[in-house]
Write a structure and sequence with these properties.
The chain is 15% helix and 25% strand. The protein is α/β, with parallel strands linked by helices. The chain has one domain. Strands 1, 2, 3 and 4 form a 4-stranded mixed sheet that branches. The longest helix is centred in the last third of the chain and has 13 residues.
């Protein structure tokens, strides 16, 4: 492991997560902690319960969405007539 990696022991932490959600990957959290013997010991873990993707994942998802064009052939649309919108 790299010496720059940070580990947090949440074993005895008070969990304050909105909607009673569980701690899980992708969960955005705020931590109150102290360090003892090179271990970060979490006192309080707080979260709004929402998951957030890293920006690189969001950029990848946006690129995929922008590139996605549904393949709709004429045969799938033959039941629909080309009619002008109705007036109210």
């Amino acid at each position: 492991m790299d010496e720059n990696d940070s580990f947090f022991n949440i074993e005895n932490a008070v969990l304050n997560i909105a909607n009673g959600s569980a701690v899980r990957s992708g969960l955005n959290v705020d931590l109150e902690y102290y360090s003892q013997n090179n271990v970060n010991i979490v006192i309080m873990l707080t979260s709004d319960g929402e998951e957030y993707l890293p920006s690189s994942t969001l950029e990848e998802a946006q690129k995929m969405a922008d590139e996605y064009v549904p393949d709709v052939s004429e045969s799938e649309n033959e039941d629909f007539e080309d009619t002008p919108p109705s007036e109210y």
